[in-house]
Write a structure and sequence with these properties.
- The protein is an all-beta fold.
- The chain is built from 2 helices and 28 strands.
- The protein has a domain of 347 residues: Porin, CATH 2.40.160.
- It has a 24-stranded antiparallel sheet that branches.
- A hairpin with a 5-residue loop joins strand 20 and strand 21.
- The longest helix is centred in the middle third of the chain and has 5 residues.
Length: 498
């Protein structure tokens, strides 16, 4: 065991009534609630997790931009940071500078500068500018963009966002662009619509933001009809949405070629008397597989290997989804189920996917709150019906306010996910990826976090917590659990006002 104590602190200074400066050094986020687990199997792009750390949460809405050009979770563990947020004259100002922990690859401290300016144009229109840069040793990524949103005829708005990125890293210098145009969006009481076009070039990169896909152009067309029932009727409100979302490769769009994925969705949501809600969805999509994504694949025929042939496109992938939620009372329940055809991207094949989700919130007393979540997903191959993957993520959070000053929280989450060995969708023979066997994989992780906090006086807070992760070979057996990581923390915080 080795230890190295570090002193940390946070300073807040109100420069004016509407403009605040906050600085921090070695901030500790041990008491922050762990992320809710998400299914990662059959995902092609990074998943979004919301910001939860106190230093970044304060004034976070002022950093908002279309298409998430600023995403503070890219700053993993800041060594130091400073933030300026508020309003100066008619300008909304948000600036964040941070030095992150040492990068394992470059052995340097990445430096972030994030700036967002937004000015009101009249009552409901805005003009904004965003600039970010991330400097990591000799590498950098810089993004500059502007956006405008104009309200017209009270019910309509149009918007334009134009962004450029400039990157230098091991892949050499490159530049990219992102553009997003909303031609019209109507937000009427009984009828609404939306028509937009968005494109992201292949070389665009936002290292300080969350743009998890590049090299595409997509159109978004939506229409909504809403019906209102009479006062006291069983159905208080019902809305139906029709969405069309074709997607092209970026270069194909400009050359007039066909789409690679997309389709249509019909979604219906209804509010019933007493606070009940029900919803249903049906969709039909298509999917073309990109041969570049399978360049490292080969088929293992035991006696030899042969190149993998990219499968044909999939059409008419129908799926349905339905859900319901109870009124917001002492016990609130929500349930959601879905089933339909879906592409299996790791194999380039067609599958059948079943999803289920359950949420429950219980307030037995004014001091006790219990939340329970369960996420389930199962994918089978359409050809032969064999198992491809299963995921189960149950989660429980218990919060107890013993007194006004004493608070207790427990979070337990089990992440169980498994995937079968990859197989050629044509022959069923094993697949090799980079000349290595793509065998079965599984994760069975049980995570527990306990937090005790005490606020004896205003501005003084003590935190004590413990967290542990345990793994086992078979899911939900709780017999051969082995600790993979754990840790205690003790934190004292005192606010000193000048």
């Amino acid at each position: 065991y080795t230890g190295r104590p570090e002193l940390g602190g946070t300073l807040r200074w109100g420069l004016t009534q509407n403009l605040n400066l906050t600085g921090t050094a070695n901030p500790d986020f041990s008491q922050v609630e762990a992320d809710v687990g998400q299914v990662t199997v059959n995902q092609r792009f990074a998943l979004f997790f919301p910001e939860k750390r106190p230093f970044f949460l304060e004034g976070l809405e002022q950093f908002d931009t279309p298409n998430r050009l600023i995403y503070t979770r890219q700053i993993v563990q800041p060594v130091a940071g400073a933030k300026l947020t508020g309003k100066a004259g008619g300008m909304n100002v948000a600036y964040l500078a941070a030095v992150d922990q040492t990068d394992a690859v470059t052995d340097a401290h990445p430096v972030f500068n994030l700036l967002r300016l937004r000015r009101d144009l009249g009552a409901s229109s805005t003009l904004g500018v965003a600039y970010t840069d991330r400097i990591d040793g000799g590498a950098y990524n810089r993004v500059l963009g502007s956006d405008v949103r104009v309200l017209w005829r009270q019910l309509w708005f149009s918007s334009v966002q134009l962004v450029g990125s400039w990157t230098l890293d091991g892949g050499g210098p490159r530049a990219g662009k992102l553009w997003d145009v909303t031609f019209a969006d109507r937000t009427g009481r009984s009828y609404g619509n939306h028509y937009s076009l968005q494109g992201v070039s292949p070389d665009f990169q936002a290292a300080s933001g969350f743009v998890n896909r590049t090299g595409y152009v997509t159109a978004r067309v939506a229409n909504r009809l809403t019906w209102y029932g009479r006062p006291g009727a069983l159905i208080e409100q019902s809305s139906t949405y029709l969405f069309l979302n074709p997607l092209w490769r970026y270069d194909d769009f400009w050359k007039g070629r066909g789409t690679i994925e997309g389709g249509f969705q019909i979604i219906s949501g209804t509010n019933l008397r007493g606070g009940w809600t029900i919803n249903a969805q049906i969709q039909n999509v298509m999917q073309r597989f990109d041969s570049a994504g399978y360049a490292s694949y080969r088929v293992d025929r035991t006696v030899d290997t042969i190149p993998f042939t990219t499968p044909h496109s999939l059409y008419n992938l129908w799926s349905v989804n339905a859900g319901a939620a109870t009124p917001n009372r002492a016990l609130t329940l929500g349930v959601n189920f879905g089933y339909g055809a879906a592409p299996i991207f790791a194999e380039g094949s067609e599958g059948h996917q079943f999803n289920a989700g359950l949420t429950a919130t219980w307030h037995p007393t004014a001091s006790l709150r219990v939340e329970a979540l369960w996420t389930h997903q199962r994918i089978t191959r359409a050809k032969g019906g064999s198992h491809f993957s299963t995921a189960d993520i149950p989660r429980v959070k218990l919060e107890y306010q013993l007194t006004r000053a004493i608070f207790f929280r427990y979070i337990g989450q089990y992440f169980a996910q498994n995937q079968a060995a990859l197989a050629d969708p044509r022959t069923g023979q094993p697949l090799l990826v980079n000349n290595a066997s793509a065998g079965p994989a599984s994760v069975n992780d049980f995570r527990s976090d306990v937090l005790f906090s005490c606020k004896p006086t205003p501005g003084t807070v003590f935190f004590f917590g413990y967290g542990a992760s345990l793994d086992e070979p078979d899911a939900f057996r709780f017999r051969n659990l082995k600790r993979s990581s754990d840790g205690f923390f003790l934190k004292a915080s005192y606010v000193y006002r000048l």
